[in-house]
Amino acid sequence: MEQQSDRSMASEAPLRAVRLPTQLTDLDMVVPYALIAEITDVSLPEGSIRLGRNEASMVEWRGQQVPLISIEAMNGEPVPTIGRRVRCAVLYGTDPERALPYYAVLLSGVPRSEQIMPAHIESAGPQDNALWKAVVRIGGRLTAIPDIRMLEERVDQMRIKETEGAGQALS
Predict the structure, then answer these.
(1) Which residues, 6 or more positions from 156, have their beta carbon under 8 angstroms from its beta carbon?
(2) pTM score, two decimals?
C-alpha cells in the first residue's frame, strides 16, 4: 500500500524545466532543466548575422566551436533581428552516437526556470511539426516540447554543412 502511494506522489512531482524565450508565433518552448549547460552571450563570426532555416553559425563557447541555430528559422518563421553579439542557451547533446557534445539555441530574452506540475499539462491536440515531441497547454499557454533527438539530428546536419562550407572556403 505504501509503495503505491509513493508512486502516485512521484508521478505528481513537479518537473523542472526552462522556458526558452523565442519569437515563435503563439508558442512558448520548454526544455528539461538538465539539458541546459549555460545561458550566455556569444559573438557571431564576422559577417555572420543571419541564421537561415537550414543553417547553423559556428560560435566560440568556452574555447570550443558549437553550432548556433534559430528555432524560428527551423520552423519557417522570420528570424529575429540580431547583431554580432547574441544571447543563447547552450544545451548538452544527448546522443552518444553523434559528435555533438553541445549546441546553442538563439534566445530573444531571458529564460526562466520553472517547476511544472504534471496535473497542469493539458493536451492541445495533434501537431504536425516533426521538431515537436508534443504541443501542450501549460497554465493556459500553448507550449512546445521539442523532440530533442530530432532537433540534434537537424543541428548535426547543419553543423556538418557549415564545417564543410568553411573547409571549402579555405581551399
Answers:
(1) 98, 99, 100
(2) 0.83
Residue whose grid cell is 556538418: 160
Give the pLDDT confidence of 102-138 residue by residue, as tens digits: 999 999 888 999 999 988 899 887 778 889 999 999 9
Residue 104: phi, psi to the nearest 5?
-120, 145
**How high is the pLDDT of residue 43?**
87
Angle at 33 between CA 155 and CA 41, to 5 degrees: 60
Which contacts qualify for 79-82: CB closer than 8 Å, 24 or more apart?
79/50, 79/51, 79/52, 79/106, 80/23, 80/106, 80/108, 82/44, 82/49, 82/51, 82/106
Alpha helix stretches (DSSP H) within the chain? 2-11, 71-74, 148-170
Residue type, 30: V
pLDDT per residue over 56-99, tens digit each?
888 999 999 999 999 998 888 887 777 778 899 999 999 888 88
Coil vs helix vs strand at 151 = helix
Q: What are the CA-CA distances from residue 104 to residues 79, 86, 132, 143 (Å)?
A: 15, 11, 17, 20
Task: Please tell me the distance from the alpha carbon of residue 87 to that of residue 170, in angstroms, as a whole number.
Answer: 28
